[in-house]
Structures are given as C-alpha cells and as structure tokens.
Amino acid sequence: MKRVIAAATGLLGLYLFAVKPSSRHRWLDEMKGRLYAHRGLHDNRGGAPENSLAAFAKAVENGYGIELDVQLSQDGIPVVFHDHLLERAARDETGQPVSGAVSDYTLEELRRFHLFDSEEKIPLFSEVLSLVNGAVPIIVEIKAEMGSDCETLCRKADELLSKYPGKYVVESFHPMAVLWYRRHRPEIIRGQLSDGFLRETGKLRYLPVEYLLTNLRTRPDFIAYNWEYEANPSRRIAAKLFHGPSVAWTIQSQDTLNRMRKKFDLLIFDSFIPGEEEV
C-alpha cells in the first residue's frame, strides 16, 4: 500500500511540475485594465471586417486592446488573417469565396482579395503595427498549424515586433512557437493557447496541449483558454495553485463576460459591444 501511495504521490508531483507555468507575472501590469477586441472591433457584414485595418482602427478609437493572428504568405511575408484557409473570409474580384490556404498565395496575390463583402484587404502585419503604434496593447497569436514548422513565422514576426514601440505579448496553440520565444526571446511575454481539443476535434494527439503538459518545455507566462472549458483541471491548477495569469477567449455576450471576470485575468471578446462595467 505504501508503494502505491508513493507511486501516486510521485505521479502527482510530476504532473504538477509539468503543467506549472513560468513564475513571471509582470505582464499583467502592462496588459491589465482593458478588454481585448478579437481580430479588432469588427463587423463582418459591414465595412470593418475581422482582422482588417478598419477593425483595428475602431478598436483603438474605442480604447480596446487588440488580439490578432499572424501567418505567412507563400513568399514569406507576415500578414494578418485568422483562418488557415481563405474561403470563409476572403473574396475574389468577382465576389466569390477564395479557395486554398493563405500560404498558397504570394503577397501580391493575397492583396487582390477582399475581406468578406467589404473593400478591406488582407493587411500586412507591418501595416497593423504602424496603425496601432502603441496606442493600445496587442495580443499577437502566432498562427502556426500544429505539427508544422513555425520557426520562420516566429522569426519574421519577431523582426517586426522587435521594432514596435508599444506593449504586446505573443501566444500560440503550437508549443514549438512558445518554445521558440522561450529560447530566442525570453524577455518577451509568451502564452500557451489551448482548448477542449478532444471534444472539439476528437484527436488524441492534442491532449498534451489541452492539459498543458507541454508547459514542461515551454514554461509559458500565461495560459489563454477557451472560456467554455475553463474547468479544465490543468488550467485551474496553473491559475489557482501557481498563480499564473489567465486569458479567456472568445467571449460573445455580456452575460458570459460578467461571469468570466472572476475566473480570468484578461478577457477577449467579439460579436457584441461590452457594457461600461469596470474591467
């Protein structure tokens, strides 16, 4: 019996050591006090669709922080676009959905497309940084597919961010992107994105990220989690036991926003305009 208890205690200790985030908490002083507009303050049926310069300008005008997604064109230029595939959000010159992935097109080709039915184009990451210019904090998602090589994307995004005058943090679902920042830019605040992958995708290979076991290598400074799975035990342990900062994505109603205030440190929202309540 003693051996069983000892083994169980040892396994518990290993688990806790694995999910432990970094002990750096200073980023909250730089980022707290705001709500964060998911892909900008957007309206996909109007003239300021998601991840457009117009949506980012509206977020700045209204004092919201910004969450955005960076990936590479075929010719290696960082652009701001959420989906890996273009079909949902991009339209060609005839108004038809565009097939294929962002990485299938050069920057010149991508710039021919419109975002939804607006006149807005897929922006360069450099354009977005110039527009915001430090006016509000930014949460930058390194949009690398799980299992892909993300080193080039990390390096090219960092080349632009290293010259940026404002406050920002980086995050990614891809643990290797978080690890890249730990190795090459340890002074930059980095976060691990996660979700209820098993229920969302049914893919067991994502369980180490769902339960934050990859923290063992990456030691993120914060955890950004789908608010619908906020009860995930690893997320709660990282936040409550280890006092790691936590970010909720993506909140789409005032009621949810009100409920999640007590469970997360920062809140990312879209699809509604938050009330005037204190953050």
Describe this structure in words.
With 279 residues, the protein is of the alpha/beta class. The chain has a single domain (2-84, 122-269), classed as Alpha-Beta Barrel (TIM Barrel), CATH 3.20.20.190. It is 34% helix and 17% strand. It is built from twelve helices and eleven strands. The chain has an eight-stranded parallel beta barrel, surrounded by five helices.
Would you summarize the structure shown here?
The protein has helices spanning 2-19, 27-31, 53-61, 107-110, 125-132, 151-161, 175-184, 197-201, 207-210, 215-218, 233-241, 254-260, and strands spanning 36-38, 65-72, 78-80, 90-91, 114-115, 138-142, 168-172, 190-194, 222-226, 246-251, 266-269.
- Beta content comes to 15-25%
CATH topology: TIM Barrel
- What do we call the CATH homologous superfamily? Phosphatidylinositol (PI) phosphodiesterase
- Walk across the major sheet and give the strand order: 1-2-6-7-8-9-10-11
Radius of gyration: 19 Å
The secondary structure category is alpha/beta
Secondary-structure map with pairings?
Blueprint: H1 2-19, H2 27-31, E1 36-38, H3 53-61, E2 65-72, E3 78-80, E4 90-91, H4 107-110, E5 114-115, H5 125-132, E6 138-142, H6 151-161, E7 168-172, H7 175-184, E8 190-194, H8 197-201, H9 207-210, H10 215-218, E9 222-226, H11 233-241, E10 246-251, H12 254-260, E11 266-269
Parallel strand pairs: 1-2, 1-11, 2-6, 6-7, 7-8, 8-9, 9-10, 10-11
Antiparallel strand pairs: 2-3, 4-5
Helix pairs in contact: 3-5
